[in-house]
Amino acid sequence: MTDSYVDPGTPDCRSALRYLWWLITSQRRRIAAGALLGSVWMVCLTLPPYLLSRAIDDGLEPGQWSALVGWVAALLGVGVLNAWLAIMRHRTMTRVRMDAAFRSVAVVVRQATVLGGALPRRVTAGEIVTIGFRDVAVISGTLTITGPGVGAVLAYVVVAALLLTVSPLLAVVVLLGVPLLAVLVGPLLWRLQGVESAYREQQGGLAARFEDIVGGLRVLNGIGGKEAYAERYRRGSRELQAQGYHVGGVTSWIQALGVGLPTLFLGVVTWLAARMATQGAITVGELVAVYGYTAVLVVPVSFFIEGGYDISRGLVAARRVIRFLAMEPDSAGGEATSQGPAAPSTLRDPESGVEVVPGGLIALVSARPSDSAAVVDRLGRFVESAATWGGIRLDEIDLTRVRRRILVADNEADLFAGPLREVICGARDRDEEAIGRGVHAAMAQDIVRGLPDGLDSPVDAQGRNLSGGQRQRVRLVRALLADPEILLAVEPTSAVDAHTEAAVAARLHAARSGRTTVVTSTSPLLLDRADTVYYLVDGSVAAVGSHRELLDGQPGYRRLVSRGVDDDALGGSAEGTVPPSREAVR
After folding, report:
1. Is residue 181 a contact partner of residue 265, using CB atoms and an 8 Å limit?
2. Cβ contact 108:136 at 8 Å
3. Which tens digit of pLDDT belongs to each residue from 57-113?
């Protein structure tokens, strides 16, 4: 199971059935062992009725006590064997289910990693959790059919053969009765697939709506929209409840038939056998055997119905999983063949005219934060563009190389749950000295000191136990510890006070000395530390120079950075508004 999580393999996503078959073939030996143990256990369940009939006919009825003791001893031995087989079968099938669950979780997590920044735009966090837990659990339960399901078929054949030795009529009833049960239950299984698919889709949509409400609760409170969203959620919840009743109705019929039909079947066969015994067609021992055979037959028949139910639900869950696995990451150009420039080189954005020369701290200033964020998106290869790096188009460079050397750090970047040390270090191991430098550069010492266990204190997912300014500084620490060749930081100090902002500006310049850093900001404290400032108007470079040069020569720039921007310069935006996130401006 550990191996299945570390290296789950390549799933077959051509169809839901093929995905389930991939899970089976990925653990052939364990599946074969489960099928063998399940088959032997199920077949051995048919032996006690036979041994009991022999004990009655050969020992109890004629008074042969030695024969009776022998058959009873054999009956006891078979009981012990069945108990051991049941334990081993259950243990093996538990491993089968767990392997399938771990393997499915691993491919889902791997796909989420591959999608990267495109993940939040493709599927909600609630939907991923639903797939990773509920759907995976349903799929793993479906694999039970490979163990006792196979054994149920063999037990059915064995019981039919044993009944044939007692009475051909009883054997015919058994052989025809089980297919009749399948005919009665089959349409309900198809119905279940349809209603459960609709239910799961509706459930995913409602989970996404709930996530939106929680994520934007403060904004909704501010604009008075909380009640409207709450009412919309309640309406969706009622609709989901009604759909759930449909699923429950079909499921209840399947489960009721799974219990009732085998019992009715048992009654019919037992009634026929009792009439034959009173007419002298079969012995008392054979009557007991027939009852035992039929009682045992309830187990495989129930497995048939439950197996069909599990497969039906498993196909629905597998369709959702393969739909997620089929998602492709965002493409930012054609097939990449170049490895990129060997040495630090100039990064150019022809659309805006921005040129990022290696080794300096460069600032992008715009009255519309979306314009400077769009430049970062192009330079970071998050969108298709004609941006070049060392004369080579970015979309011609291997994306993995781009991601290793160019890092885009924004205020929407995910923070995963875990100790603060792991949150800021990411996949790399950093020593205490390096961590200390990163924390110092981002003015995050107070965060470490304020947590109960310092760097070993737990951080909630998305940093929910931290304030907005603390989350921003934690993201900056993580970006600095990654130590990329080119760091593109979007509004890195927008959520901190002026004192902290001034310190971060000074320390960022020192921490990134000799490395290329680009920031988007309108903060004079940060701009004064920049080596070069690009002033953008309508998304294009209007002026280039130092902060002081632009203050002297560009009235529009001076009004912007002094927070005295009029509506025309801002393109209609309100003065003093907080810059929107990169997701919001896309």
Report:
1. yes
2. yes
3. 777 777 788 888 888 888 898 889 989 998 998 899 899 989 988 998 888 888 888
Query: Which amino acid is present at 474?
Result: V
What per-residue string of b and e applies to 50-74 under the rule 16 or more CB within 10 Å gives b?
bbbbbbbbebbeeeeeebbebbeeb
Q: Both tokens of residue 262?
A: 């085998």
Structure tokens at 11: 């799933």
Question: 452 exposed, middle or buried (CB, 10 Å; 0-12, 13-18, 19+)?
Answer: exposed
CB burial of residue 271 (10 Å; 0-12, 13-18, 19+): exposed
Using the predicted structure, report yes or no on whether residue 475 has a pLDDT greater than 90: yes
Asked whether residue 573 carries a pLDDT value surpassing 50, the answer given is no
Strands, DSSP E only, in 387-494? 388-389, 392-393, 406-409, 418-419, 458-459, 486-490
Residue 548: predicted pLDDT: 93
Rounded CA-CA distance 533/520 in Å is 10
Burial label for 37, CB within 10 Å (0-12, 13-18, 19+), is buried
Contact 356, 140 (CB under 8 A): no
Q: How far apart are the first and last CA of the chain?
A: 42
Which residue type, as a one-letter code, is found at position 145? Answer: I
Determine how β-strand 418-419 pairs with β-strand 392-393: unpaired
Q: Map residue 408 onto helix, strand or coil.
A: strand
